């Protein structure tokens, strides 16, 4: 059994994003841009900071042994 908020909250968020946000966001965007400056967003989007190379790792992130190449050919 699913609780009522687990049903109602996603439905309300979907209604907001689909129908209300296109009308409300243009009205509140000038105020949001004053409160939340663009400089803070640019500082946090440093491309080299926190970048992790995932080559050679399996789905769980642990390193794999052997070749990592995936073949689509059928084996007879």
Automatic annotation (TrEMBL):
Compositionally biased region (Basic and acidic residues): 42-56
Cited Pfam families: DUF4512 (PF14975)
Region listing for Disordered, in residue ranges: 42-76
GO terms under cellular component: endoplasmic reticulum; lipid droplet
Function comment: May activate the NF-kappa-B signaling pathway.
Family to which this protein belongs: Belongs to the UPF0729 family.
Self-association and partners: Interacts with DERL1 and AMFR.
Family matches, as PANTHER family: UPF0729 PROTEIN C18ORF32 (PTHR13456:SF0)
Name of the protein in question: UPF0729 protein C18orf32 homolog
Source organism per UniProt: Tursiops truncatus
Gene name of the record: C13H18orf32
């Amino acid at each position: 059994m699913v609780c009522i908020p687990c049903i109602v909250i996603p439905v309300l968020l979907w209604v907001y994003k689909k129908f209300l946000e296109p009308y409300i966001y243009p009205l509140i965007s000038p105020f949001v841009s004053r409160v939340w400056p663009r400089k803070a967003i640019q500082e946090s989007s440093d491309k080299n900071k926190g970048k992790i190379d995932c080559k050679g790792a399996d789905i769980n992130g642990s390193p794999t042994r052997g070749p990592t190449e995936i073949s689509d050919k059928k084996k007879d």
